[in-house]
Amino acid sequence: MKKYLAVFMALVLALSCMMIFTACDGASEKETEAPTNAATEAGTTAEANGEKPVLKMGTNAYFQPYEFYQGEEIVGIDAEIAAAIAEKLGMTLEIVDMEFDSILTAVNQDSVDFGMAGMTITEDRLLEVDFSISYANGVQSIIVPEGSPITCADDLYAEGASYKVGVQLGTTGDIYATDDFGKENVTTYSNGNEAVMALAGGSVDCVIIDNEPAKALVAANSGLKILETAYANEDYAICVKKGNSELLDKINVAIMELTEDGTIAAIVAKYIK
Ligand code: ARG
């Protein structure tokens, strides 16, 4: 009887051991499975999902035809060239709209990958960021009301002249006008449209702004004209965080290819007739 009991006990012991091991096995399976799943989830990058990684562009979208709102969407020459660059990089473009004078900071703080905003390459900006090769030329123009005593750029510098100039904050128009006519004669606005509203309302005598946006602003507001003499000539480029040569090199190659195959010219022709 004792013998049977011992065999029975041994069997029970063996069975429960098997169950424990199975349970342990199950648990360990789950444990190893769980991290695997978590790892896959965490590692589920956009790419693994078939989505492309995001390339963020900082701009100020009140600058037709380079960047402006069409409904909810930001369109324009820069927006389209940037999308073509992103495509070449295998990335999806995301455009972040901000004040023009915040773009360099945003680039340097990595809140965007690059800045593109009809932005002129200047010595001072080169101290803060790196610029790509230029993809377009810009001209600073002067907008005045019809019948204005200002008939050419030189009139602004005439003996005894003291005109009030409106500009977009932080633009080359702002920088040059402040240098030439003094801070007290320059009023800064958040965008070109606000500057032109001030001009139409008589708070400033002229607005200095890039030529293509000037054309769009004059077309949208009656009683204004662009003077024939330009105020300054400049080159537009994309800026990246200082030292980000990895991205800059890719952008430069893309700009070269998009220039060579006529993509950039076609985009420009679509917006500038
Ligand atoms: N070209 C000028 C500059 O670099 C004006 C650019 C303004 N751009 C804009 N998207 N609001 O200062």
In the CATH scheme, the class of the largest domain would be: Alpha Beta
Q: Assign the CATH superfamily of the largest domain.
A: Periplasmic binding protein-like II
- Strand portion: 15-25%
Secondary structure class reads alpha/beta
Low-confidence stretches: 5-44
What would CATH call the architecture of the largest domain?
3-Layer(aba) Sandwich
Work out the radius of gyration. 31 Å
Major sheet attributes: 6 strands, mixed
- Cα(first) to Cα(last) distance is 107 Å
Mean pLDDT: 87
- The CATH topology of the largest domain is given as D-Maltodextrin-Binding Protein, domain 2
Number of domains: 2
Question: What's this, in brief?
Answer:
The chain is of the alpha/beta class.
